[in-house]
Amino acid sequence: MNKEKWINMLDLMPHPEGGYYKEVIKSEQTLSDHNALYTSIYFLLEKNNISHFHRIQSDEVWYYHAGQTLTVHMIHPDGKHEQVNVGPHVDKGDVLQALVPKGVIFASTVEGDNDYALVGCMCSPGFQFEKFELFTQDELLEQYPQHEEAIKKYAFESIK
Questions:
Q1: Distance, CA of 109 to CA of 107 (rounded, Å)
Q2: CA gap 79, 113 in Å, rounded
C-alpha cells in the first residue's frame, strides 16, 4: 500500500498541525466536563508534511500501523528534549507504541527512506480542538532557546 491508497481508503483529511487524520473511535462515556473519556484517530504523516510543535491537555498513546518509522519530538515542561521512534524496527530501537504525556509540547516526523508513516493515536481524556495549541518558532524559542535547532525544524514560522 502507498500513502495515497491509505489516505483514500481510510478517508483521511488534512490536520491543522500537518499530516492527515480521521477520528475513528470516541467513547460514549463522558467526564464531568462532558468531554469523551477517550478518542482515537488514524494519523498519517509524510516525509515533507510533518506534525508541527503543538500541545494538548490529554495523554496521547501512539501505535504503529504501517510505513516508515515516525519520530516523536517532545519538549517537556521542565525543558527536557526527548525523541521516541515509533515503528516496525524494534531490533533497532523503535517501539510499537509510545506515550506523549499531557502538557508536553511535541512534533512528529518521518525521517526514513519511505515517504509516509501510519499510526493510531488514542487520547484520554478525549481530544478537543478547543484545547489544542499550535506554537510558532518565536513562542517556543522564547521559552526553550536551548532547543533552537529542533524548534526551527519542527515549528511553524507563523500560524495563519
A1: 7
A2: 30
Q: Cβ(47)–Cβ(134) under 8 Å? A: no
Residue 137's CB: how many other CB atoms inside 10 A? 18
112 — pLDDT class (breaks 50, 70, 90): low
- Three-state DSSP at 7 gives helix
Q: Do 71 and 108 form a contact (C-beta atoms < 8 A)?
A: yes
Residue pair 121/43 in contact by the 8 Å Cβ criterion: yes
pLDDT tens string 46-75: 988 999 999 999 999 999 999 999 999 999
DSSP conformation class of 102? T
Query: Which cell numbers in the block locate residue 101?
Result: 504525556
The fraction of the chain above a pLDDT of 70, given in percent, is 98
* Strand arrangement of the beta sheet that strand 105-110 belongs to: 81-86, 70-75, 105-110, 51-55, 133-134
Task: Report pLDDT digits (tens) over 67-107.
Answer: 999 999 999 999 999 999 999 999 999 999 999 999 999 99
| Total residue count of the chain as it appears in this document | 160
